[in-house]
Specification:
The protein is of the alpha+beta class. About 15% of the residues lie in helices and about 35% in strands. It has twelve helices and 36 strands. The strands form six sheets. Strands 7, 8, 9, 10, 13, 14, 15, 16, 20 and 21 form a ten-stranded antiparallel beta sheet that branches. A seven-stranded antiparallel beta sheet has the order 1-2-3-4-12-18-17, with no helix packed on it. α5 runs parallel beside α6 and α7 runs parallel beside α8. The chain is globular. The chain starts with a helix and ends with a strand.
């Protein structure tokens, strides 16, 4: 596992950088150090309380007068049942305030304010090994976070973390929206809603509509060289951290020291306000790529949907999707449609009809299939103003991929490919380790950094979850990490409410390559009885609701030709100056507006579950005193996901910031609007 070493070295450097500012801050007197420590957010919305209770560290969280987390456990268990959670004294307390604004290379919001108050508590065991442990707390107005730092202290042996004892003792029960943590489909499951007290072991983000009236989201930030966290109910409403293990049961392997990811709780008065919380991004390291000129958001088409509906195959044969002939035809479509990127999957040797099954598949990442010429296709694309998006399917055979990754990335550099999709189909990496254990965390970070060395942007499928690393490495464009639209092609499909759940759950982690934009929702050319459970207008709306700097217009390209509604798909940007959420209810509906970073135009996406509904919205997000042309793409009268689902009504209307609009959404329908400033 040589790929782990540079990541461990980087972690050690980051830890030193983190601790240096503490030396510059005022230190409290010893008498104060042993008192209860309180930390409030800048506007006093959220408060953290830390204390030693019987020499054990505990924390609690409140929002205004509402208790959120009652005193909860902290600490670790190492190998041989060696606990680090008791017999502590406080040796130092440091406070700090930070208020700055930073700019994303790309994103759903260009400028992000990072404003928090910080409390750093140094602990040491009073007897025995007298080990040290530092706990860092940060209080934001949109949530709270904390992490552990186990500093270098002369330990020569390897450190094996067997358990993290962190709990979240919720004061109130509530409705939790969750997917199971230890399932062979990883994150690709439909969300269930149930009381916190009845949960399975679940992935994060875990979103809870608390009985207190608050909306909560539990996640983690800056997941580096550590196991990802899952949560399970110990008893009642007490949730405990469950680190994803290695195959031998060890949770985390390290040497000398370690720094955990931030454990995060986003707190909002309404669920819709969770969507515009940037706490996760703020807790990550600043951008480490000095020259970002090669990092560009984009839209793309592909042969992907054709493979999923059975028109093409991934493997060689009479219907092979990635043939030179078919690739050139798709380049012609891309040029005709005005979309300048094309994804080609299955162009390399190693694909078989069993490629998706658990097996150590031996893909060759530099040798084209017999019916495909990579250089000829990329040259043809360049002549027609269309870039090819590369694809590597590892089949979760990580050993095989790591042996070839340099030569594979070098080949893409040679032929002008600037972005690559990397898949990891398989229940386990190397048929042995969880995608979201420490092995997987380090592997994905290694590939991300390797891609940056070759100036390649990437988006992962079957990935580790997003914890905000796109701030540090903005060549990390997007990832799957959720149940996408392809399930509609060959399974019972995603129910209408699925896309009304994702903005409040999966999308809180970061951009998703959801692959929307299917106009032929009836799937006339696909498998009998399979269809997309939405209207075509809802598919347009998803290009606004689903944030990603790389957006696939996933339908067969011929289904876009001559369709007036395609204009919205072509117009809608993938990089934004601002984002606002106008309304929303988890699993029911949501309306999001975003402002184009390159113009004064705003775009709106609104969608609903299986219930038709009318939503009245105010247009006060528009510039005061200005007039806009609202280009409206809506469900036609009588349209729903079961009837007339492809009918889109297009209209225009002049509006100002003082106006209101009523959006009429059909069953599993939607509305998409471009507000063009006149």
């Amino acid at each position: 596992m040589a790929f782990l070493e540079p990541l461990q070295n980087e972690r050690k450097m980051n830890r030193k950088i983190t601790l240096i500012p503490a030396l510059l801050l005022s230190v409290l007197s010893f008498g104060q150090q042993n008192k209860i420590q309180e930390l409030s957010s800048p506007e006093g919305k959220n408060k953290i309380v830390f204390q030693l209770e019987n020499e054990r560290p505990k924390y609690s969280v409140s929002h205004g007068a509402t208790e959120v987390i009652t005193p909860s456990e902290m600490g670790f268990v190492f190998k041989n049942n060696d606990s680090l959670n008791k017999n502590f004294k406080v040796t130092n307390v440091v406070r700090n305030t930070v208020d700055n604004t930073w700019e994303q290379v790309w994103g759903e919001k260009q400028k992000i304010r990072n404003n928090y108050n910080e409390l750093v508590v140094d602990l040491q065991e009073k007897k025995g090994k007298k080990r040290k442990l530092q706990i860092q707390f940060r209080a934001y107005d949109d949530g709270v976070a904390f992490r552990y730092v186990f500093p270098k202290q002369g330990i020569k042996d390897s450190i094996f973390i067997m358990d993290e004892l962190t709990t979240f003792d919720l004061k109130h029960d509530g409705k939790a929206w969750w997917i199971p943590a230890y399932h062979e489909q990883r994150y690709e499951n439909l969300y269930e809603a149930s009381p916190v007290s009845t949960l399975d072991t679940v992935h994060t983000p875990l979103t809870i509509e608390s009985d207190s009236g608050l909306a909560l989201s539990f996640h983690e930030a800056n997941l580096t060289d550590f196991a990802s966290t899952t949560l399970y109910p110990v008893s009642g409403t007490k949730l405990k951290t469950d680190l994803v293990p290695w195959s031998d049961g060890v949770k985390v392997r390290t040497v000398d020291s370690f720094t955990t990811p931030w454990r995060t709780i986003q707190i909002a008065e309404e669920p819709k306000d969770l969507i515009t919380s940037y706490l996760i991004l703020n807790l990550n390291e600043p951008n480490k790529i000095e020259d970002t000129s090669w990092i560009e958001p984009y839209k793309y088409i592909g042969i992907w949907w054709g493979m999923h509906i059975g028109k093409y195959t991934f493997w060689e044969g009479p219907n092979h999707g990635a043939s030179t002939k078919n690739a050139k035809e798709h380049i012609d479509y891309a040029k005709q449609l005005g979309i300048d990127n094309l994804l080609i999957e299955g162009w390399n040797k190693g694909w078989t009809p069993e490629w998706y099954q658990n097996h150590m598949h031996m893909f060759d990442f530099t040798t084209s299939t017999d019916d495909f010429d990579l250089e000829e296709v990329t040259e043809y694309g360049a002549k027609n103003g269309v870039r090819i998006v590369g694809y590597h399917e590892t089949g979760s055979n990580i050993d095989n991929y790591l042996k070839q990754v340099d030569s594979a990335f070098a080949l893409y550099n040679k032929v002008g490919v600037r972005s690559v999709k990397i898949g990891h189909v398989g229940s386990m990496l190397n048929m042995k380790e969880w995608h979201h254990g420490q092995f997987g965390v380090n592997y994905f970070r290694y590939i991300l950094k390797k891609a940056a060395d070759y100036k390649l942007t990437v988006y992962f499928h079957e990935p580790i979850k997003d914890t905000g690393e796109r701030r540090t490495y903005p060549n990390m464009m997007a990832r799957e990490g959720g149940r996408g639209i392809e399930y509609n092609a060959w399974s019972e499909g995603n129910p209408p409410g699925h896309t009304a759940i994702l903005p409040f759950t999966r999308f809180l982690a970061g951009p998703m390559d959801f692959t929307a934009g299917i106009l032929d929702v009836e799937n006339k050319q696909g498998y009998p009885g399979r269809r997309v459970h939405s209207t075509s207008s809802k598919q347009l709306a998803l290009l606004v609701v689903v944030y990603s700097p790389v957006q696939m217009l996933a339908d067969l390209p011929e289904n876009y030709v001559g369709k007036p509604e395609f204009k919205f798909l072509k117009d809608v940007p993938v990089n934004w100056q601002d984002t606002q959420v106008l309304n929303g209810s988890i699993g029911e509906f949501v309306t999001i507006v975003r402002k184009d970073i390159d113009s004064d135009d705003w775009y709106l996406g609104s969608l609903t579950n299986e219930e038709a509904r009318d939503l009245e919205i105010e247009l006060d997000f528009l510039d005061a005193g200005a007039t806009y042309e609202a280009q409206i793409y809506a469900d036609a009268e009588g349209t729903g996901y079961k009837t007339n689902s492809t009918e889109v009504e297009i209209s225009t209307k002049e509006v100002t910031s003082e106006d209101k609009l009523t959006l009429k959404l059909g069953e599993s329908g939607g509305t998409a609007i471009r507000f063009k400033k006149l």
